[in-house]
Amino acid sequence: MSSIQASRARKPGQSPGGLTATGLFMRRTLHHMRNNIFGLAVEAVLSPIIMLLIFTFLFGGAIAGSAREYIQYLLPGILVLTVVPMTVYSGTTICTDIAKGVYHRFRTLPFWQPAAIFGSIIADSLRYAVALLVVLTMGFGLGFRPDGGLEGTMAAALYVLLFAFGTSWVFALIGNAAKRPETVSGTSMMIVYPLLFASNVLVDTSTMPRWLQVAIDLNPISIAVTLIRGLLHGTANAAQLAAGIGVVLLLIAIFAPLTINVYLRRQIR
Amino acid sequence: MTYAIEAKGLRKSFRGHEAVRGVDLAIRQGELFALLGPNGAGKTTTLHMLTTLLRPDGGTAYICGSDVVAEAADVRRRISVTGQYAALDESLTGRQNLRLFAGLHGFSHKEAVVLASELLESFGLGDAGDRTVGTYSGGMRRRLDLAAGILSQPEVMFLDEPTTGLDPQSRRELWEAIRLLVKKGTTVLLTTQYLEEADQLADRIGFIADGRVIATGTPEQLKASTGGKTLTIRLSAATDPYEICRLFADEHGLSAHTDEDGVTVKAAVREASLAHAAIGTLMEHQTAIKDFALSDPSLDDVFFALTATTGKEATR
Are residues B172 and B279 in the same domain? Predict the structure, then answer.
């Protein structure tokens, strides 16, 4: 404390540009993961494994005759069921920054402000990638055999990451609007789980009444899962591809500008 | 002349409540200015407007000549803010925090690494540098926050109640660090609710109440404006304190008020002899006194005196 005059004659260089700042925020998110490796293990390793085991063996016999049969249908859905709830975390991070005050410092620093959001949402993809890898590996162990081969699997995994990037913005907006981080997870889960279960993640919609089938097929989660299933099993067609990518673009087009706008215009009290 | 901080008629309302209603400030370069006032007086809101965090409803403010609204980016390059609630990332270590902020200021990664180590060392956080900030004590957080504040060598530093909630030892250490900053030529605007803090540190004090700066001056000038000393008398419960206030006003022309406890009377006295005379009067009236004291004015006394002379009812 006694010698802050130390040896510092240095002044900062130019204010960082958008890319540099985004990179710094990505690094910050990686540090978060490294500092809380236990949380990452639970969220991206343990909980996907449990989900996959539960659904495979709980529903497998009843729905498809056997677990091995069912996992061919289920696994693409489990990828989404695992990753989408993880994207809620993007909102919690923003809300925590604001609630704990570090947002105040960010707002008084001379960098391209949206980098704070972009950086963390992009870097969060690493967590999703870990979860994807775990689910796929586990799935192969349980007898999942995608007809789409390695290329199909890679394409599906990439699409899941893209879809996660899209949904992140929804929760980033909620994270900006909420007062406390707990509210973010509460509100978001209330949106996420009904959407996840009222979809074709777990069951085929062809046995449902017509009206329900239409509603469920319009659910963005269903659209994404249909494409992922198609990519993994090598049956995806152009319409499914267009719908799947369209949903992501729509999510980004609506929620990214809104989120950034709210973030920048936020009044501090 | 360009002031380091200049504000004219700054105003801000929140949902119909006017938090700041016309703040004027003119702070010279290298000055340590304390904005002193009770909770809710508008200190933090004023500071948020000066640091580009809040957009004023009215009035203008310039930092080193740059407009806080129109030239916010320019202002952000010149200032740093250290908050009442240390603005740090609790999930990062102290070192990771400093490196992040250094990077966002425009230092290269290499510079940021060196800078973070130096600052941790000189703020006595060398051993704690690789622990997450969530595990830090209040004093350690403030120190890290201040380190983050000075790493860009800002021209103007804003400290929002930097010592609120700190133990006396940490407070003294923080004061020492702030003095060093000013010695090196940084302009500092500090908000505080402690008269002692303003008295110890500030070149000049601005007294803020109800969203306005109601008096500005050196600590000596401000204290003198209350009438020099404060006479505090504790009465026995049977005596009516308002009676005594009237008596002091009638007999000695003293401005006196009672505390909310109902037994304490405080009067501003210009010199000790007036206090003697006032006590004498009480003796003549055979008033039962528990004890009395003559002291330097406290924040409450200055506040009372200032609000009283501007013709307002004291709110307490």
Answer: no
Count Cα atoms within 13 angstroms, Cβ side, for B176.
14
User: Which CATH number belongs to the domain containing residue B64 in this structure?
Assistant: 3.40.50.300
What are B284-304's pLDDT values in tens digits? 888 888 888 888 776 667 767
Cβ atoms B12, B57 nearer than 8 A? yes
Based on the fold, state whether residues B104 and B161 are members of the same structural domain.
Answer: yes
**Residue B302, domain member (yes or no):** no
Q: Do B81 and A267 touch (CB under 8 A)?
A: no
pLDDT reported for residue B308? 63
**Overall number of domains in chain B:** 2
A60: CB partners within 8 A, 6+ apart: A66, A67, A68, A69, A70, A71, A74
Q: For chain A, list residues whose CB is within 8 angstroms of any CB belonging to chain B.
A: 1-8, 10-16, 20-21, 24, 27-28, 31-32, 35-36, 97, 100-111, 267-269
| Banded pLDDT at A242 (limits 50, 70, 90) | very high
State the ipTM, two decimals.
0.88
In sequence order, what are the residues at sequence separation of 6 or more whose Cβ sits closer than 8 angstroms to the Cβ of residue B12?
A: B18, B19, B20, B42, B45, B49, B54, B56, B57
CA A54 to chain centre: 22
* Residues on chain A touching B121 (C-beta within 8 angstroms): 6
Same-domain check for residues B169 and B254: no
Largest CA distance in chain B: 78
Task: Flag whether A11 is in a domain.
Answer: no
Q: How far apart are CA A77 and CA A71, in angstroms?
A: 10
Residues 6+ apart with CB under 8 A from A218: none
CB B45 within 8 A of CB B22: no
